[in-house]
Amino acid sequence: MAFTLQLLPPQPGIAFDEAEHRYTLESKLGPVHPASTTQVLTVSGGKQFDPSHWRRSLIERQGLLPAEADAFMDRHRNTRADIGTELHSLIRAELLGLPFCPPKNAEALLLRATWRQAFLPRISEVLLVEVPLASRWGFYTGTPDLLARVDGRLLVVDWKTKASESKAKAEASWALQLGAYAGLVFDQYGIEVDGALNLMVWPGGTADVAHNRADVQIARQRFYGFLRKHHEIRAVQGCSLHRRALLQFDREVACDRVQVGVP
Known about the structure:
The chain is of the alpha/beta class. The chain is built from 7 helices and 12 strands.
């Protein structure tokens, strides 16, 4: 079944510089740079990844020297990130009917073909495709990959590329990021989503990591807990913008406009 495009207007005053990987938000103070959802979770401890086990395996089981193991890990991460970026670009072009741009990594084409067969028919209506959003009260930003009606439910969706089915394992921080995106959608458009979805894609297969509305609400509240911690850390480090953001955050909580869960 073909989907329909019912695109919501982009949020004014917010821009994302892909080369710098930085958001810029126009404010009364002039251009400011709120943290992304990933930066919030990284600084506050919500996005935890310990590479030491991987590094030890490369040295002890694969025979690499420590410097070689570090170089291998950096190159592998960069390659996987590039493939993910290219798949995102291919999906965006397909959904919006934009010109096709051949990727540098052939794997991205295999991933798009898998996505097209397994997921595209599930979409009936598309509302947002990679549109930068910012929360002015929360002073954070993010770009949901997709806001769409999927299997009859309004979901915020995030693509996760994997090298193979054996590597297709969910991470705890994914739900927090989706909760943050749901918060951004609500702040800008007043829309409460029915749920959220991480779609893991590898050549030849996909898997859903699904979250219902209650899951998303809990994840959003937990993200807000990490968000406050992030502002607190940056404020202690001397950032006046985050001191202001922390005060605004606590005012929203005191007025019962925001529910915060334990991070």
